[in-house]
Amino acid sequence: MRYLSPAMTQNTQTIDVFSPYRLGPLHLPNRTVMAPMTRNRAGPGDVPGPLNVTYYVQRAAAGLIVTEGTQVSPQGQGYARTPGIYDAAQVAGWKQVTQAVHAAAGRIFLQLWHVGRISHPSVQPNGGIPVAPSALQPAGQIMTAQGLQPFVTPHALETAEVVGVVEEFRRGAANAKLAGFDGVELHGANGYLVDQFLKDKTNRRTDRYGGSALNRARFLIEVTEAIAGEWGADRVGVRLAPTNPFNDIADSNPAATFAVAVNELNRLGLGYLHIVEPLPSDPIAAGEKPDIRFFRRIWGGTLMGNKGYDLERANAALRDGIVDLVSFASLFLANPDLPERFRRGAALNAPDRPTFYAGGEKGYVDYPALGG
Ligand SMILES: Cc1cc2nc3c(=O)[nH]c(=O)nc-3n(C[C@H](O)[C@H](O)[C@H](O)COP(=O)(O)O)c2cc1C
What we know:
Blueprint: H1 6-10, E1 21-23, E2 26-28, E3 32-34, H2 50-58, E4 64-71, H3 88-103, E5 108-113, E6 131-132, E7 141-144, E8 147-150, E9 155-156, H4 159-178, E10 183-188, H5 193-198, H6 213-216, H7 218-231, E11 236-240, H8 254-266, E12 272-276, H9 292-298, E13 303-306, H10 311-319, E14 325-328, H11 330-334, H12 338-344
Parallel strand pairs: 3-4, 3-14, 4-5, 5-10, 6-9, 10-11, 11-12, 12-13, 13-14
Antiparallel strand pairs: 1-2, 7-8
Helix pairs in contact: 2-3, 4-7
The structure holds flavin mononucleotide.
């Protein structure tokens, strides 16, 4: 055990990745969060199976695990073998995961996902076309079971249909509760459906879900309220990515748009806000760069930072009070015992990119922990 001199014990205010954190009703033993990561390894019927149980249990020492994006409906799916949370078999599969993570003394939130237009008829029910706020075909191609295919022009949701999608999120949240999760995170980032509504490159609607920033934030707020109605707001996190251009998305003034959205979210008393932070290479057409300090200023609750953090940068951001929690994606993917490696200052395994989004055990459950 480390000897604490009186000066050091007085200095217990220094916050770092090893400091515990009270997240609403949850006690997190450290501030090293596992970021959500799609791994395309669900079983038949998009049901989590034993391989997925092993993967998450290996990472149970995280302060909090956020699962891979999990579709709330068949229409919300964009890629092969991503798990769902809309039927009884999927709930039962996830229950095996949550029970095993809890038995290993971990905590786990489910990430609720609808991809909107980032999909393809090959993964849509009856080979149908995906839905979106507006009928705008994304640039580029999507990976399908038959290889890369061009995106298609999506169906613009009718106003009345939007209510049905909000209901899908509500049911997904209710199912996550049945599956024994500790809470849920809404995937509002990275060019998927919630982000498609928020940003004006993908939302050209003229009804109450389009036009002003407040109207474009309406879908996010209605979905978040529906989820919080199932869980209680303090067990709900929201993930946003103000400037990430991934999936052909942009906003003409992200700082202005996200200031409005966060102002609305502030009223809900949520567990946390999770930001995929801007990179210097992200294009910003107009307005202030909405970096993590911007969100610290405008957000009234727990703030989780993400993107490109290592131990040193995470500790600096926590110490300076810029964030309360830090999430790590690729480092957690490759290092199941990441908190212990941080504690010991141990070397890190390198992530193997070819096995990120497909395959079986290799590159999934075979990254070694310290000591073998
Ligand atoms: C393999 C992989 C899958 C990902 N899947 C998701 C996902 O399902 N949901 C999500 O919000 N972000 C997803 N991301 C983005 C990460 O959560 C994170 O924002 C990004 O990798 C930057 O964090 P890092 O620098 O710690 O890796 C994924 C990233 C990777 C590498």
